[in-house]
Structure formats: C-alpha cells, structure tokens
User: Fold these one by one.
Assistant:
Number 1:
Amino acid sequence: MISRLQIRQLIVLAVLALVTLTYTGIHYARLGSAVGIGEYTVRAVFPDSGGIFTDAEVTYQGVAVGRVSALRLTNAGVDVDLRLKTGAARVPAASTAVVADRSAVGEQFVDLRPTSAAGPFLHEGSVITDVAIPPPLD
C-alpha cells in the first residue's frame, strides 16, 4: 500500500517534471515561437524579394531580433512577414527594412535601420513601407 508521504512525493515529482519540460520546451526547443508566445508580427512591403527567404534572420542595430516567417507575392511586389521577439530591443516605427548580405557570397537577412530613435515603436500588425533591396547583379 502506498502511504500518504509517497503520494505527496509522487505529486511533487510530477509537478517538477512538468515545470522542467515546459521550461525546456519554451526556451530551448523554441516551442513558444511555434504558437506565437513572446513574439509579434510586422509586415514589410518590398517591390521584389531581393533574395530574402523564409526563416532568414532579422536584425536591429546588429542584434538578432527575429526571423522572416512568411513571404507573399502581391501585385505591388512581395509582402514579408517579420516575426520579432517581444523581449528584444524596441524598434522605432520610423525604420527602414533593408535586405542585406552577410558577405559577398553570404545569405541575405533583413536589417531594420532606424531613421529616428524616438517612438512610436513597432507592434503587432505594424507595416513597414520604407524598404531597400540590393541592386541586382547582372
């Protein structure tokens, strides 16, 4: 027969295991980003893709603040969804989204370059229309 002490110990063990699995899933397996916890989406409207791709890094002043989550073709060009981390630096709404290269042969990423350090700041649903892409190589 299981005593009350053993039942309490099993309950404490189960709670600790659940807390550990939740913490590990959110922080190391990035499960929070899969369901949108701790992130918000901003749209950048580009005239063409400039070589950007899904899951490309998004930076602000040299610091990674998110990833490209989706690309959609439109009549005006390409809408790029940027999924930014809530805990990262606050990015001014007056920013230019630039498709940049890591090196001459490196992959592209989106760099958010502020034109003003003051607010308002980007938030869920913000749209960036001030964009720049590298010139095509012919």
Number 2:
Amino acid sequence: MNKKIENIRIEWDGPYSLTDIGYDETNENYKGKVNPSLCNEYTDFGIYQVYGYHPIYGNDVLLYIGQSAQQTFSKRLSQEGWEFNADSKNIKFYVGRLFAKKQPSSEKEWDKMIDIAERMLIYAHEPARNSSNILSITRNRAKLKEFENIRIFNYDNYRSLIPEISGELWVKDFEDYNGVFNSKEI
C-alpha cells in the first residue's frame, strides 16, 4: 500500500547580510542583537541557508543549511558565529518559511515538518559545513525512509537549491547505490 505523499513548500527570502541580522562590528555584544524584521515569533521560523567563502569550493557557495524551530531566524542566526568566517563581510543568509496545503496545527507538528525538511535538504545538497549531519543521515536507514513520502518544493529566492526534491527518488537512489556497492558479485 502506497502512503500519501506529503508536500512541503518553502518560500525563500534574502539575501540578508550579517548586519541585516543584527551584527554590529563595533558592539561586542552581538549575540544579544536581533533584527526586528526577522523576529516575528509567528512567522519567522523555518529553514535557513548560508552562503559564503569556502577554502576548497570558493566564493559565494552554499555552506550550511540549518533550522530555526524553537526561536526566530534573527535569534538563531545570531548564535551561529558566522562573523568568524574568513570572508564574513560577504556571508549571505536566506530564510525559508514553510507552508503546506494542510498547515500543522501544533508547535510539535511544525517542529517535525521543519526537522524533516532540513534533513532532506541537507541530504540532497550536502553543504560543506553540514558534514556531521550528512553522515548521521546516510548511516541510518530509518532516517532515510522518513523521506520516502515527502516532496519539497522551493519557491522564490532559493539560490543553489534544487527546485523540487522527491524523497522517493533520493531514498531509492541511495538504496540502489548501496545495493551495487554492497553486492558480493563485485
């Protein structure tokens, strides 16, 4: 029996700079500063992308995908320490607000949707600074199976992300890949 596909839609907004999220070079108390336009407790949570310099991959590349579930984007991004990146003046943040045909009715359901969307985006895109998350997902077949009936649609300013990600495709692809390399016939 096939389970119904759950579509998660993410509307992306940005770019935001370190200054846009509240960073002030002259103020040592950066972590306490927040941007009022990214701290609405009812709308400013979801997934975020970080772009910037990487010593191997170059400039303006996808570095990290994270989530802001129990706090606003502004608060979460101010905790990350991106001001210490080698080229911090060129760091760019994109925030993604999730929506679905049937909106979650509880905070717990929202958190679950945000969590699975973050893990699926990390798995599909493999950002350089998410290496531990990538390994934890690929080494856990049960976590991969969670993606099977999920489809993510990225809208608006989604940058380097794939516009549509089908969990069924990614799980099947991983199983085929593992089947080939774990086969005793090779």
Number 3:
Amino acid sequence: MSEATSLSVSIGGGTSKLVAKLAAGRAKPRPGAAAPSDGVCIVAPGAEAEFLLQFALADLPGVGPKAQARLARLGWRTVRDVAPLERSALVARLGEREGTWLYDRVRGVDRSSVEPEREAKSLSRDETFAADVDDDAALGAKLRALADRASADLRDLGLAARTVTVKLRDADFTTRQASRTLPEAVRSDRAVSAVARQLLRRLRATRRMPARLLGVALSHLVRGGPDAQLSLLDVPPESSVETERDRAIARAIDAARQRFGPDALGRGNP
C-alpha cells in the first residue's frame, strides 16, 4: 500500500484488542527513531506481559486523566511500576473492580469483543518523540502537522468535528489534556490547527516541561458532505471558527493530494 499510494499504514496484531491497538501504535513511523518501522508489529502469544512493559499507564485505553492522577499519587506512572504487584495489592489500593481491571491490563489481558462496524466516535493523531521536545516552535510545527492529518482524516470520512482536544505527555510521564467544544462543526486544516494551537499554549502555560508525546483528537463528530452546511447552530458569520474560504482551501488541498500524493501540497506558515 505504501508503494501504491505513498500513504503510511501501521498494523498491529496480538491476542487481544488492547495488545493489537498498542502494537499498531508502536508500528507507526517515528521521526528520529534509530531504525525505521516497516509498519507492522505482531506480539506473539505469551509475549504480552513483556511487550506491555515499555508503555506508560496513560497509554492504556481506559486510563484517563483522572485515573492517571490517582495512580500517580500512588507512585505508579508506567506499566513497569505496576506489573510486579499482586492482584490483591492492587485491589487493596483501588478496589475490586478497578484493581482487577488494572491487573489484567498491564498483562495484556482484554476480554472485550471486536465490533468492526462500529461508527467512529473520535479521530486522533499523535506522535511519540524519539527525544523529548521543549522548544515551542518545534512543538507548534509538530502540532500543526498532526492537526492537518487529523482534519484530512475527517474529510476523507465525510465528517466534521465540534470538539478539539490536545494531549501532551511530559517527560515525567504526566499526561495532560485540554479541550474546546465549538459552536459549529469544523473540518478544515486551518480551523482545527488554530484551535489546537490555543489549547497547546494553555497546557504549556500551566506546566512547562519537555514533551514526550503530542496528540490531537477530534470528537463530537457529525456527518456532512464537502459542500454541506456544517454549522449545528445559527452562528453569526463573524463568530464562526471556520469560513467558507477555509473549506474551499481544504477541498483544493484534498484534490491535489488525491491526484499527486499526500505530500503534494500543504499550508504555509501562518
């Protein structure tokens, strides 16, 4: 697929949805990595627990900001921190349900079923850096690239989003998020990127540390064609986050990329 379309594809495989999802993330190309990824990561049966040791607890689906803060207060930030603990120790600190859940997850155990036809509730793009990044300009450039890719994914699916979320993982594995829900759904590169930049500035102003991971997520998705009116409310033009010009530029970029490849055209610096 890479040779035919110039698109990067990552494939993860494992004995559970949890392991496969994390493996797919590990298979993504990582700029600056010592060795390039071939886009495939398969975790053999029996190797799940060892594979999980490289991840932060925040990487586990279901461990949100509140859970991360609670676990951090106990001194647990990575899978390696928790993996040696007995189930009874986790239950004693977290309760039966949460303790058992975490005990299973850090070993790669996930009994949830696969639902291949489920409607997407959100789209996200993120990047784990080979070396921590603390320069605002460098982070801004990486955020912009992630936002552009996420908004392109939206348009490919005929969707728009009302909520933009930026995720930032600090060098000490603290993961923080900031979100903004808009009065109208957006889909253009410029609109998504502009909101994401505001959120990143807010996160960096609250706590400034070198960043290990940066991500952009789009949620509250609505369906609409390229020329559809995307406003969910009667929003005055002067208050709109996204203009018709933004949408027209996005359509032109998509057309060029479809004809000449994903790197054929992009936006200049603001």
